[in-house]
Amino acid sequence: MSNARAAIFQRLNAVERPTVDLSQRESLSVFAWDKAERIRRFTERMQMVRAEVYHSDREHWLDTVAEICQAKGLNNLLLSAHTEWGQAISQNTERFPTLKHYEHSIENWKEELFYDVDAGLTSTLGGVAETGTLILWSNPDEPRTLSLVPPIHIAILDTEQLFSTFAEAVNTQGWLEQGLPTNALLISGPSRSADIAQVLAYGVHGPKELVVVLVSEMLDE
Amino acid sequence: MTTEFRIDVEKALGKTEVRAHFRKAMDTLMTNRRHQFPDDAALQALRHQAQAIRANALSKLPELLEQLETNLTKNGIQVHWAETTDEANQIVLGIMQKHNAKSIIKGKSMVSEEMGLNHFLEERGIEALESDLGEFIIQLDGETPSHIIMPAIHKSKEQISQLFHDKFPDIPYTDDVDELTASARRILRDKFYAAPVGLSGVNFAVAETGTLCLVENEGNGRMSTTIPPVHIAVTGIEKVVEKLSDIPPLLSILPRSATGQPITTYFNMISGPRKADEKDGPTEVHLVLLDNGRSTIYSDPELLATLRCIRCGACINHCPVYVRIGGHSYGTVYPGPIGTILEPQKEGLKVHGELIQASSLCGACGEVCPVRIPIPDIINRLRYDSVRKDTEHTNTRDAGSKRKPLEAAIWQGWAWSAARPSVYNLGGNIATQLRGLVPNKVGAWTRVRSAPKLADKTLHQQLKALGVDHE
Amino acid sequence: MSQTTRPDTIYFFGTCLIDLIYPQAGVSAVQLLQREGIKVIYPQAQTCCGQPAWNSGYRDEARKVARTQIKLFPKNIPIVIPSGSCAGMMKTHYPALFKGEADEAEALNVANRVYELTEFLVDVLQVDLTDLGELVEVAVHTSCSARREMGVADKIEQLLGQLAQVQVKEQAYKAECCGFGGTFAIKQPEISAAMVADKTMHIRATGATQLISQDCGCLLNISGAFAYQAEHEGKTAPKAQHIAEFLWERTQASSQEMKP
């Protein structure tokens, strides 16, 4: 409707622009949190919204994920075979439930994805401590629905990429320079709603359970 | 002489149970918000920042809309423009028809309520399914939302339980919230699976990167914008922000103001349809930009602040009028304080002019608005617009339409005598004038209060007698 | 804008509501100020700040009246007003009312010199009060204008805090509007009635025997509702007073009462 476009722009352009005080625009909250403090805050925030958080390291994370799968009685686990984590898991199939790999477009196997997948495992681009948040960027290896459709989402977060604030993540990781992906996602807990008489309920449409495995270089005991 | 609005209001005020329900809900939302802002200085700084970000975007609105369109298009998102809700509906219909789609699954969108989209599509044989739990509930009951964030806030748990059982008789009656939620999840999962088209709103549209940002807690927004092969987003032209760096402060203040959450469960940033090597996501993404009176609001430097709104609902949660009359009494898409200033400007003062009288100008709304919209000042300005004679000096729709000769004459009389101390000091004169202002409505005062009594001696007289200097 | 230098003379703007219905509050306020050694000027030509017309959208009429008021304060000294509502009108709304007018500068000058009474007593005069009264439990209602336009909710609390025999009982929803809103009570009487019903209920629940406020508009509304409920429903009603009247009564030994 180019008529509508032209009419709208004509009305907007006819207006004398207001001057705006922009002095407050750029201020950023900055926190002097060290890594241990970021991990602590991230964990606290996540646990407050019923996400499970495990602290692990490069040596033990595989064990942790295997234990989680067992504890939840998973029949299968959906993941990418191409990520660092996915490769390691795929080379140790005996320790895990049946592994399913997200190899095909969703159209080819939608029914199975929706009705026969117990859990999805993804890597993460990073995390935010202030709000207890995971950052996921969609890509060909880990499609969006991997962290959305299965009722359980297991996410692995490298604590080197755990930032204090969202702004810090955007700046440090150079989101603008890299260009945003099809879908950049912040996940801060399992799916929830308070729409029924303001009573909190979990697992509305997104995953009912969110499990985060924090992987540090070395665990500080 | 009463009005339709006041009749509706009186009915709403009589619903004691519903009022208690609203009271509890608003108290919870206000408390939760307070807990999120323990440091007042930090809160005020963040409000000023959010105001600056939104005001900046509005000051460059045409340029940013152009930049947004360019970058969205570069990203593969198709941009459509609609002056009216009718045009917007036609655009959505066109896309649906192109794909032979008979149903659309909706994430939450207040602009789609503005469009009356569901009704429009249903009239043309297309099913519009709400997937947000609150919207799903009210759709089952054939109602409209009573709050912009929590659409089913007027419904009790018992009412919802009964509704589910009535509409889905195969599911045994339950009032357990987890069970009700699980039922909704099951029912809607099938719908997400099969829907040919998904619809969403937009919380922020980033011009710099051509990105549509969405906040939500349930995951239905992600589902609606990821599973169906076609995604249509609808939003108002005022929702654009300039830079990616504008997003973190806005995301910081929106959920905390709205529901007292530090952040919503999901924050979804969409910058394009599925790429060739990607395995899921819609292959077609559309954005419909709706004007519907916003460009007129834009033309007034004082009323422009209305467009800063980020639709958090904090004003609604804090309003002493809203908590007592509920959202439906307003008879508008947007209720509460934001509705009070937006709807008369969007739809005209003739049809919604009374809303601007339904405020005591207490200022609780302006105090919590994350982008510092001076709502009471705007209400006052709209009152002026509704009765002014020089309607050529304002673009507000139906300006002057509420001017009544009797009321105007009374204020003119009041001004005449109040500007003349000797006249004014004849106290009885003024009292008569004040009573003449609304003859039967002072009657309304005495329905619940004793009548005011004029003092024997005015302050003027007493201070004169006490020898207080007068210059 | 707080001026800590103590003036020796001030203007007093009594407000039309106090003039006609609560003159004792105005007399008490003047006496409080004079007792602190301040010379009070009360321009007899004052009538009304114009707020009723301003809130009804009749800006030309409001300006006609406001225009005559601003001429009454030629000396560059503070203007003290025993009302958060009227002080708020002059201080925060006169700038908009006079925008672009020939006398805009004059109006701004007046606006910048306005103090609400309790603000002036606490911030400028730094009064030090001694309670001569009996033990009493009071509830405080701060008007929305005093709270949000003038930002002086803490001033009335501070003054009452100086009185050793006065115990302040806090009512639930104390920051919520009482439902007066000037013409709002007349134009939307149903909503206003619902608001004042809740307000009286919450104040009564404190058990306080007195209700104190910086604003007579709110007092007119709330005490009027209390009186009606006392007469028609037999419910208890606290005694309502403006803060000036209450302070004068509590701190002034009766032999020092001013005589006309």
Give structural notes.
The complex is a heterotrimer of chains A (221), B (471) and C (260). Chain A has seven helices and twelve strands. By secondary structure, chain A is an alpha/beta fold. Chain A has a single domain (33-216), classed as NagB/RpiA/CoA transferase-like (Rossmann fold), CATH 3.40.50. In chain A, the strands form four sheets. Chain A has a four-stranded parallel sheet with strand order 1-12-7-4, sandwiched between helices. Chain B has 471 residues and is α/β, with parallel strands linked by helices. Chain B has three domains: 4-11 and 295-393, Fumarate Reductase Iron-sulfur Protein, Chain B, domain 2, CATH 1.10.1060; 37-292, NagB/RpiA/CoA transferase-like (Rossmann fold); 405-465, no CATH class. Helix content of chain B is 51%, strand content 10%. Chain B has helices at residues 4-13, 16-36, 40-59, 61-74, 85-98, 110-115, 117-123, 133-140, 157-167, 177-194, 220-226, 247-258, 294-298, 314-318, 322-325, 336-347, 349-352, 364-368, 375-387, 405-418, 421-424, 427-437, 441-448, 459-465, and strands at 77-82, 103-106, 127-130, 197-200, 204-206, 211-216, 230-236, 240-241, 266-270, 284-290. In chain B, α16 packs parallel to α19 (375-387). The longest helix of chain B has 21 residues, at 16-36. The mean pLDDT of chain B is 94. The model of chain C has no long low-confidence stretch (mean pLDDT 95). Helices cover 49% and strands 12% of the residues of chain C. Chain C has a four-stranded parallel sheet, with helices on both faces. Chain C is of the alpha/beta class and 260 residues long. Chain C has helices at 16-20, 23-35, 51-55, 59-70, 84-97, 104-111, 117-124, 144-149, 153-161, 184-187, 189-205, 216-233, 243-251; strands at residues 9-12, 39-41, 79-81, 114-116, 136-141, 166-168, 210-213, 239-242. Chain C is built from 13 helices and eight strands. In chain C, α5 packs antiparallel against α6. Chains A and B meet through α1, α5, α6, β9 and β10 of A and α2, α3, α4, β1 and α8 of B. β9 (183-187) of chain A pairs antiparallel with β9 of chain B, so a sheet runs across the interface.
